[in-house]
Amino acid sequence: MNLASNAAMSVAREKFFSGHALPEGLVPAPILRSWQRCAERGLDAGSTIRAEAMSASELRVLHEQNETLRLLSRSELVSLRTEARLTDSVVILTDAKGLVLDTAGSPEFVGQAAAVSLRPGVAWSEMSTGTNAIGTALAERRAIEVHGAEHFFEPHRILHCTASPIFDPYGKLAGVLDMSGHASAEHTHAMGLVRLAVEQIEHRFFNRRFDEMTVVRFHRSADLLGTAREGILVFDGHRLIAGNRRALHLVGLDRKALRQSSREEIFEGAGLVIDHGELRARNGERYFAAVSQPRSTPLHIAGTLPRVTKPKRNAPFLTQQTRTDLAKAIRLVNAQIPLLIAGETGAGKEVFARHLHAQTIRAGKPFIAINCAALPESLIEAELFGYESGAFTGAKKSGAKGLVQQAEGGILFLDEIGDMPLLLQSRLLRVLQDKEVAPLGGGKPQMADFVPICATNRNLNAMVDAGTFRADLYFRIAQYTIALPSLADMPDRRDLVETLWSQFAEQHRPLTPEVRDQLADHHWPGNFRELVGCLRSIAALHDPDEPVLASALPRSGHPVDAPASAINGDLGSLTDMAMRRAVEQHRGNLSAAARALGVDRSTLYRRFVWRDGRP
Ligand SMILES: Nc1ncnc2c1ncn2[C@@H]1O[C@H](COP(=O)(O)OP(=O)(O)OP(=O)(O)O)[C@@H](O)[C@H]1O
Given CA atoms 318, 320, 323, 325 in this order, what sign does their dihedral have? Predict the structure, then answer.
């Protein structure tokens, strides 16, 4: 700031703080609005600022509450740190209330910044710290620079701060990224750098959990699709639920439209048509577009967006303990620490692992599941590590990528790890140790970046003692073990039955307390798999308006009284009947029958192929 503007600022402050007049035209409008807000709240520019710092344990809680934001911002903080060191500045990440989470940058300036309380745990909202880039960006909900004496409080005159709010995909404030340096230095690029970094962070938020939505991504250049420069709109059925700045700008909307506007309004309103990978606007502008549909809906790009109904993918039922375990597991996976999930069959080990994956920083990357018990021993090695052309008789000419390589950047879920043959255990151990994998047939080793999550329903410790499981592999994969409870050990089974029923039979009448209690008290050796299968079958066999009678439920030795056709037998036969009916209707096509019933194909296999020996 030059001498003339310094003088103008002195006049402006004098006018404003003496209460004589509003210094309109002498200070930028957003700064003046901020001064007014501060004055209205009774802040006194001449008083000393009391910055209340947090205790170490309070700061730990704050960090935990903002774990996702911190993770998604980490690489931006690291890359801006270099720039900050060059300009003798500091980069600051705050939460949505302006509480400082992390700082990085020039060690000298970090020291000086700490003297004016720019340190973790301190609040930089306008109401606590007066006009400043963090607080004012939050209040104005836009990027802002606050220079020297534009700060409300005198001691902050030494600062030049640039900040931008960070929004999550749903338009909610998630935090602020700020760069602060000496007011006397040049900060020409600060605004550009902060904006770019925030764009990256906001884009990273979209990598998470939109599998079940229709996501439209577009950009003028095909090369920039998939980068932070693309526009993104996310639809849940017909409703616009998420979007980034670029996309909202193109369709002439702001964040307030999220959750309010429908796909038809937006596309018709802006005259947009999606056709063969292109998004065309009424004014003739063309964009390259990629549309991803909910996982189970076939891809369809031509014409306007297809109508899709959202398939049901309910959040799993978790006990209080499992929720606590999940929070820990997210942190461990983010720190690349292998996990072991132990639990009886059907206790939900894979469901838990998938739910966990969706909440880690690897969410946008693959989740590759392999059941070590289901693959013939001779194939596991090739399946896991891939092979070069001609590696063995029957190998594909082109060779094949192994599951380990397919899991690149994501999670490799090794189910029934106790069933992995000893020889392969050594190979897996080497891959985990070296973080490198060489395809069969003498292929060149390649770096592998994945986090292994193993699952077992066997006692691996006992297997180690018996010499059937390698101790060194056990220590490697079981750095942290999560034990999922069997249904019999769950404290809140009534709640569980009600929740699952409302998910799988939402059209049906609620269960009566008597029926619910009987289901909750029943012993389910197949755990969730069995209970869920049973509830689905009951729902399939009952008219939604018909109450489920207690007599239709399992009680040892009690006949099952199903509606329409009386079946004698226990709950198993009720389930069997629904399954057989579905298999017949789909002429023996197990995949189609499983889809219709909403169960895994493996469930039908288990019941028909393994038990009866034929479908
Ligand atoms: N927490 C849960 N909430 C609701 N349903 C669940 C939950 N966990 C599992 N299920 C249901 O049970 C079925 C089996 O779960 P999953 O395959 O995760 O079990 P598992 O422990 O991996 O079994 P296995 O040891 O036999 O491989 C799922 O398809 C789902 O329908």
Answer: negative
Would you say residue 385 lies in a domain? yes
Please give the full DSSP string across 311-329, using - where no structure is assigned: PP-PPPP--HHHHHHHHHH
Task: Answer whether 450 contacts ligand 1 (Cβ < 6 A).
Answer: no
Ligand 1 proximity of 345 Cβ (cutoff 6 Å):
yes
Ligand 1 pocket, 317 CB below 6 A? yes
Mean pLDDT of the chain: 81
Same domain as 499, residue 463:
no
Residue 134 has pLDDT above 90, yes or no: yes
The rounded Å distance from CA 457 to ligand 1 centre is: 12
The ligand 1 atom nearest the CA atom of 322: 1
Q: Is residue 305 part of a domain?
A: no
> Can you tell me the mean pLDDT for 472-499?
92
Task: Specify whether 359 is located in the same domain as 447.
Answer: yes
Q: What is the pLDDT of residues 310-349, one digit of tens each?
A: 334 568 999 989 999 999 999 899 888 999 999 998 999 9
Please count the structural domains in the chain: 4
Ligand 1 center–CA 426 separation, angstroms: 29
Structural domain including 415 reads 320-483
**Same domain membership, residue 279 and residue 184:** no
Cα 57 to the center of its chain, rounded Å: 26
* Predicted ipTM > 0.95: yes
Longest dimension (CA), the chain: 95
